[in-house]
Amino acid sequence: MKIFEAIKEACNKLNGFDSPQLDAEVILSHALNRDKIYLYINRDMELENGILEEFFKMIERRKNGEPVQYIVGKQEFMSLVFIVKPGVLIPRGDTEILVEETLKNMNEMKNPTIVDVGCGSGAISVSIAKYRSDALVYGIDKMDTPLEVTGINAEKNGVLDRVQGIKSDLLSSLDKSLYNAIDVLISNPPYIREDVIPTLMREVKDYEPFVALSGGLDGLYFYREITNQSLKFIKPGGFIAFEIGYDQGEDVKNILIENGFSNVYCKKDLAGNDRVVTGWR
Q1: Where are the domains of the chain?
Q2: Which CATH number fits domain 85-280: 3.30.300.180, 3.40.50.150, 3.10.20.340, 3.20.20.370?
Q3: Which of 39, 126, 128, 136 has the smallest number of CB atoms closer than 10 Å to its CB?
Q4: CA–CA separation, 251 vs 274, rounded Å?
Q5: Which of 165, 141, 143 lies closest to 153, judged by CA?
Q6: What sign does the CA torsion over 48, 34, 95, 173 have?
Q7: DSSP states of 110-144 as a string?
Q8: Mean pLDDT, the chain, whole residue set
Q9: pLDDT digit string, tens, across residues 30-83
């Protein structure tokens, strides 16, 4: 079977998915260990039986709803490549808004200390360390898999010496030496209301970790907890930055204001939806 024929058959199997051809091309590129341009240039190339078998096994996994990123084991974020696997949230483009806005607000800081609450794959921690060579980042998570994957991605992207994983339920296990010592606290916490989760796409609700999705009954639980716990850690002149759901801007701004943060504002994403809330100590 030729490359173009394999992709066509895979598209038929994935009929009904949002982007069957893209999914098929990404998966076949992974099976061949080549980029997508290779597929276009060599569309008439005959595929070996072993490659075809591997490819269609992965297509079946996709047909069953498994995210492409888990199938191929990686995802691009902030122009960096991150290893991902079940147990960590897949990095999304919306979160790049959070990282970019945070980097902009850190522009005048020297040797900043950052805490990333709920580090997941390490996308936020590693990206900040990569683009700020003087930053020290603590990636916090209460689960072992995210800390393991964050370490792998820190090493893969050359910042392992400046990204330190800490096992902690939110900020509860942070050392007292960090009191009034954090320049930036950043988080993409779980923010989906529990009653909404069953309505999400199958690849999200059935495959991505529930603990990385659920923000409690109203979706705001972690914003309240993190903000309250952050008060003894963020130094004067430091700031907190959250990714939020599209309809949570005013609620999260009010949480920060009620906890004494100033210059609180909301940044919209490229689609015009509220996406990031930032406030200063």
Answers
A1: 3-64, 85-280
A2: 3.40.50.150
A3: 136
A4: 11
A5: 165
A6: positive
A7: SS-EEEEES-TTSHHHHHHHHH-TT-EEEEEESSH
A8: 92
A9: 999 999 999 999 999 999 999 999 999 999 999 999 999 999 999 999 999 999
